[in-house]
Here is the input.
Amino acid sequence: MALHGTDAEPSGSILYVPEPEQDSALSRFRLKPPSSGGAVEIPCYDCDIASDPTPESPTGMSLAQDFTYADVRTDRIKVHGPAGFAGMRVAGRLAAECLDMLTPHVVPGVATAELDRLAREFILDNGALPACLYYRGYSHTLCISPNHVVCHGIPGERTLREGDVANIDVTVIVDGWHGDHSRMYALGEVAPRARRLIEVTYEALERGVAAVRPGARLGDVGYAIQSYVEAQRCSVVRDFCGHGVGRVFHDAPNVLHFGRQGAGERLEAGMFFTIEPMVNLGRHPVKLLADGWTAVTRDKSLSAQCEHSIGVTEDGCEIFTVSPGGLFKPQ
Ligand code: MF3
Ligand code: CO
Ligand code: CO
Here is the structure.
């Protein structure tokens, strides 16, 4: 097993995540943070708990000590080893299984809150946690974004209707690893332009994924998506992006779905991130509703999105969120 430079100084903007030692449950608590000695400075963008040590820690240590730099958001892109891939495979599969499970329930007349309840119970029944629940004040398991909602639609009493298209986004935490995944659902007969938008969005994700390999740049991924989407006379949302993922939900890097070839961070095997393009039939600007979450297209045009969590491999990438039921694309 390759051990990614546990004691090495970090190089450039990359952070090598050490593999846990197999023989010691507490081994990760002995890991040195990359910057020398002293207190671990924990940037708490993603995890307020890390700066709030309490005596309730399961190990008896303070929570600040329990966290390694694999567990907190960092500016540098983390590079994971085999243990990370193993963790993400399990988390990604459960996220995909959750959306597979929902598929037969996504029918005209279903309340979005009911889908949220089904997802929450499924995740908890599988010994996992819904990552969005209580994340930054969000109080649901899913984001459900119909029609002109771009992302972060809040489940509620609203029912999905014949002709709607909706994105459902779920993130599960399994053994500390985050599986983040979303798909489009079409309710009954949908308009041809809605069908076309969904197809463009899936193709955009596939082209972004195909651009991922060691040595490629994040700008190559954005370019692959943007150039295709705009050639289809659709637009790429600028205000939301994909993100590093792993033991942190939203980590570096920001994965923009537009960009220039050869620009941006250089990819390396072991980096984990999401690609989750949001594509509009009309123009790209969005606005936030008064609830503080729901983003909609300014011009009220239809919007679609799909998302995979992936890991860069030696010869391309591994998709962690493959649908076991072959249900990724809507029928
Ligand atoms: N799953 C979303 C993503 O793809 C994040 C949702 S955060 C929430 O990054 F709080 F809105 F749920
Ligand atoms: Co997501
Ligand atoms: Co995401």
